[in-house]
TrEMBL record:
PANTHER family: SLR0284 PROTEIN (PTHR37309). The chain crosses the membrane at residues 28-46, 53-77, 89-107. It holds the Pfam family Phage_holin_4_2. This is Membrane protein. It comes from the Bacteria. Keywords: Membrane, Transmembrane, Transmembrane helix. InterPro entries: Phage_holin_4_2. The keyword Disulfide bond does not apply. The keyword Transit peptide does not apply.
Amino acid sequence: MKLLIKWILSALALLCVAYLYSGVEVRSFGAALIAALLIGLCNAIVRPVLVVLTLPVTVITLGLFLFVINALMFWAASGIAGSGFQVHGFWAALIGSLLYSIINLVIESLTSRLLFRE
């Protein structure tokens, strides 16, 4: 149940990003659900491999290269999702991924306090 709620809230966060920033387009809630699933899968499967492969660059840039990796995962998900979720370029992916991360962080902190008390 927690996973389903987090998935729906991530889709809502993606809709918020599209509302706040014109470089990211989401056509419907269904497209946001698919895009949130794809972003989650990219972050779970591809991102760890990229983090390990780019470790020297990440160390040299004091961790700032992780923003580039996040943007690439965001952009890759838009490429896989098709026309329902579009990101217009790398810089739009960078800004969109930053906004998405911030909104998800706020949602996660609120839901952990309100819904998921153990």
